[in-house]
Amino acid sequence: MTLLVRKALAPGWRVPLFLSLMKRTLTAGMAAGVLASALLPATAFAAAADDAFPRQSIKLVLPFPPGSGTDGTARVMGNEIAAAIGQPVVIENKAGANGFLAAEAVAKADPDGYTLLFTSNTHIANKYLFKKLPYDPIQDFKSVSLLKEAPLVVVVGANSSFKTLADLTQKVKAEPGRVSFASGNSSSRVAAELYSQSIGSPMLYVPYKGNPAAITDLLGGRVDVMFSDTTSVMSSIKSGRLRALAVTSQTRLNGLKEVPTTVELGLPQVILGSWLAVLAPARTPDALVAKLNAIFLAALHTDSVLKNFVANDSEPKGSTPAELDRFMNAEATKWSDIITKAGIQPE
């Protein structure tokens, strides 16, 4: 295990210290998992007691389509993990149904550490956007690690008449319900609705199965605007195919220094970001979660993953499972408040 993780660490890391910390984490996790494992199926108990984990491929299930920014991040991270553990990492895209398909598949998967959810804040937002879910976003999952955070970007096509956020606001106010916004996930929709509520005039909601399809129509001029995570649109902004009007944060992005924030533009209430995290089925033993946490933290600090994050102006995070638990609970409260403020009624 030591040799495998050592391969995944980026140059400059203090390897002995990291491995010492990982060893203590794994030992504590194994002790905590003894009692819980008594209630698990025999196959999961065997996996929890198996020091050779992982013995087979690990599957990352994504509620995003192939070609999306998050899909790209998952593949870069998956390559690093595969090299470190000596087993394949399979990316399974289950887009559509607002992320229900992917989340439900993982919630019902064997808690053996081999099927994980690679998800975003949409996972939490759905709890308040829909009256009934086929799973509980908190109770049916176990935290592995937070991966990264980033603000959203308000973007339009390069040929759009909207040169600034003020231009967009003026048009939305002049023609309520006429300006359309594309949405490939829940966080994108909530941000747009929060903006509409803040300026006192509605836009037309146009849902998509995922961000790639939404961005295609935005580039083609079939929809007017989109509130997107940086990972999905940064390359199109840099190439000049999309124009960024604002970022939904308090400070400007390093890669988009010329783009003002919503706070600067007089909309301090329109602050919203995106994040990525890894979750396991709820009954996954703590011993396995500790091992998975160490694997993802090591991959998180490899050169290729950090390069991917920097290219998309995302901030690498990393966390313990307990820290992600607290983060998810805080996010649940935050998204409940934001969705209420945006005036969105659960479907």
Automatic annotation (TrEMBL):
Keyword Transmembrane: no
Taxonomy, superkingdom: Bacteria
Record's keyword terms, sorted: Receptor, Signal
One of the Pfam families matching this protein, by short name: TctC
Record has Lyase as a keyword: no
Endpoints of the signal sequence: 1-46
Family named by the database record: Belongs to the UPF0065 (bug) family.
PANTHER family in UniProt: BLR1237 PROTEIN, TRICARBOXYLATE-BINDING PROTEIN
Protein name (record): Tripartite-type tricarboxylate transporter receptor subunit TctC
Species of provenance: Pigmentiphaga litoralis
